[in-house]
């Protein structure tokens, strides 16, 4: 059982995170190889734009906008945030010359990790609840009896949904550091 948990949840997390880092290194290498390192500056704008678009999911989740499928918007959020993070990491490169960009990058990496962990933990909770429900239904239990037996599993799924209460503040701190970085760039650029 432990082996399958590792393969189904830990390995995909590590793969997505490592792939993000490897793609970042690859793009950065290509830009430096072709002496286009200055392009990295503009990738920061594109990465920020992708992250901002990914917040459409959050707006839909909080009912600030009414259109769009939450499930499809969540998938869009995941991929745009992941891709935007890659572009922001390329933008950051290895050229840190101030504490604020360092803090923003660290919070970006923590935010991506938080999102991936939440994604995989929530999926695990849903799958477990669904499997337990199916087993109990196959045993011939009534829906009410199944609901009673799965009460604590349902609470666990609801608790897993609360990981967003951790993910959101991390995203806000990342956003704050990023905003401060952008403001200082405009204030002190020549």
Explain this structure.
The chain is an all-alpha fold and 190 residues long. It has 2 domains: 1-95, no CATH class; 96-190. 84% of the residues lie in helices and 0% in strands. The chain is built from 8 helices and no strands. It has helices at 2-33, 39-54, 56-61, 70-92, 99-138, 143-149, 151-161, 164-188. Helix 2 (39-54) packs antiparallel against helix 4, helix 5 (99-138) packs antiparallel against helix 7 and helix 5 runs antiparallel to helix 8. The longest helix is centred in the middle third of the chain and has 40 residues, at 99-138. It is elongated.
Strand and helix layout:
Elements: H1 2-33, H2 39-54, H3 56-61, H4 70-92, H5 99-138, H6 143-149, H7 151-161, H8 164-188
TL;DR?
The protein has helices spanning 2-33, 39-54, 56-61, 70-92, 99-138, 143-149, 151-161, 164-188. By secondary structure, it is mainly alpha-helical. Helix 1 (2-33) packs antiparallel against helix 5 (99-138), helix 4 runs antiparallel to helix 5 (99-138) and helix 5 packs antiparallel against helix 8.
Give the count of helical stretches: 8
Largest sheet: none
What is the number of domains? 2
Write down the overall mean pLDDT: 88
Radius of gyration: 20 Å
Structural class by SSE content: mainly alpha
Shape designation: elongated
Uncertain segments of ≥5 residues (pLDDT<50)? none
Name the helicity range: over 70%
Question: Span from first to last CA?
Answer: 59 Å
Order of helices and strands: HHHHHHHH
**Percent strand:** under 5%
Topology, number of strands: 0
């Amino acid at each position: 059982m432990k082996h399958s948990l590792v393969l189904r949840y830990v390995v995909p997390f590590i793969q997505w995170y490592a792939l993000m880092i490897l793609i970042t290194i690859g793009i950065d290498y290509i830009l430096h190889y072709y002496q286009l390192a200055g392009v990295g500056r503009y990738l920061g704008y594109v990465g920020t734009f992708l992250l901002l678009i990914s917040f459409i999911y959050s707006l839909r989740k909080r009912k600030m906008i009414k259109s769009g499928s939450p499930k499809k918007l969540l998938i869009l959020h995941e991929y745009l945030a992941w891709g935007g993070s890659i572009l922001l990491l390329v933008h950051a490169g290895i050229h840190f010359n101030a504490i604020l960009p360092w803090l923003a990058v660290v919070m970006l990496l923590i935010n991506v990790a938080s999102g991936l962990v939440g994604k995989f933990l929530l999926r695990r909770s849903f799958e477990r609840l669904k499997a337990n429900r199916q087993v109990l239904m196959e045993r011939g239990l009534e829906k009410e009896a199944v609901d009673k037996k799965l009460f604590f599993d349902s609470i666990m799924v609801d608790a897993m949904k609360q990981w967003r209460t951790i993910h959101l503040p991390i995203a806000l701190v990342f956003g704050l550091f990023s905003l401060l970085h952008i403001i200082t760039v405009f204030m002190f650029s020549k």
